Amino acid sequence: MSGTGLFVSFEGIDGVGKTTQVERLRAYLTEAGRSVVVTREPGGTPLGTAIRQLLLSNAADSAPVSPRAEAMLYAADRAQHAHDVIRPALEAGSVVLTDRYVDSSIAYQSAGRQLSEDDILMLSMWATENLMPARTYLLDMDPSASHARLTGAPDRLESEPDSFQERTRAGFLARAAAEPQRFRVVDASQSIDDVWNAIRADIDMVLS
After folding, report:
1. For the domain 6-207, what is the CATH code?
2. Using one digit for the tens of pLDDT, what is the confidence trace for 141-153?
3. 26 φ/ψ angles, rounded to the nearest 5 degrees
4. pLDDT digits (tens, 9 = 90+) for 110-140
5. Which neighbouring-strand residues pair with 139?
């Protein structure tokens, strides 16, 4: 957290419903009179949008991205995101809701790509000047079930094999276990309303 604002991140593998719950929380907090900024990674800035295209394109003519290059591109996106969007909003007293942040890099690039977790964390901490959320909601679900919810052509990460998706999920759960004071793990296989009720009860406690 920085300034007088509140920084909240939503994490989880693709298809768990992060975007839906971010929007519910935005509407809830706005109705309560809070200033809310909603953003995402990658792609929360103009530079990030260009990086997102490089990272997630699954076009037949797109060149493979090496795991280390991928990690550095995510870190570059995050550096710009923290500088341009997150810190200014927090300093203005807003609640910042981001769809993905540092924990996604650790889950995808460390657990998924099998790079060093210490290296990925150090890279993100350097990129953001050690800016971390006050609360992280991990929407957890079996990858085979969550990916069945996806519509449209899969992007590059969504196209990874089951073994990658399982490692990524395990990476998220390991992060939550390591930082229980920051994380709240929510069973995303529940109904949308049940997931939202769990988040709403917790955010009310955080804000009180």
Report:
1. 3.40.50.300
2. 998 776 666 556 6
3. -60, -50
4. 888 888 999 999 999 999 999 999 999 999 9
5. 186
